[in-house]
Design brief:
single chain; alpha+beta; Arc Repressor Mutant, subunit A; three-stranded antiparallel sheet; 63% helix; elongated; Transcription regulator TrmB N-terminal domain-containing protein; UCP037373_trxn_reg; WH_DNA-bd_sf; coiled coil; Tscrpt_reg_TrmB_N
């Protein structure tokens, strides 16, 4: 089990949030990028999230194709544990988010220039 998110990890989480990710998803991605693979309870503890928050984050991450899950057989009775792993590394996810944000910025700059021209500021 990997330790809780450190200061650098928390800064990466903040920047991912500013790049457009949900807070819980950002925390899960950063934790999984360190841990490699983890069960829900490990993610809850290390990323400081509640079980429903982890479940919702995993649902969205699976829909995006960014995480895969596998069932681990437990000894005895009860539901099997689910283990989660990123399907791409943190660099790839960050690169996609950065490019999307840069495209939004380019569009916004273009729109602002057009507005300036239309209202006579330029």
């Amino acid at each position: 089990m990997v330790e809780e998110l450190n200061e650098k990890d928390e800064r990466i989480v903040q920047l991912l949030i500013e790049a457009g990710l949900n807070k819980n998803i950002a925390r899960v991605i950063v934790y999984l990028s360190k841990a490699g693979e983890a069960i829900s309870r490990e993610i809850e503890r290390a990323a400081n999230l509640r079980q429903p928050e982890v479940s919702l984050a995993m649902k969205e991450l699976k829909e995006k194709g960014w995480v895969k899950e596998r069932e681990l057989k437990k000894k005895g009775k009860g539901r099997p544990l689910k283990s989660y792993k990123l399907t791409m590394d943190l660099k790839e996810i960050a690169k996609m988010l950065i490019e999307k944000k840069r495209e939004e910025i380019r569009k916004m700059e273009k729109d602002l220039e057009e507005l300036e021209k239309l209202v006579g500021l330029k």
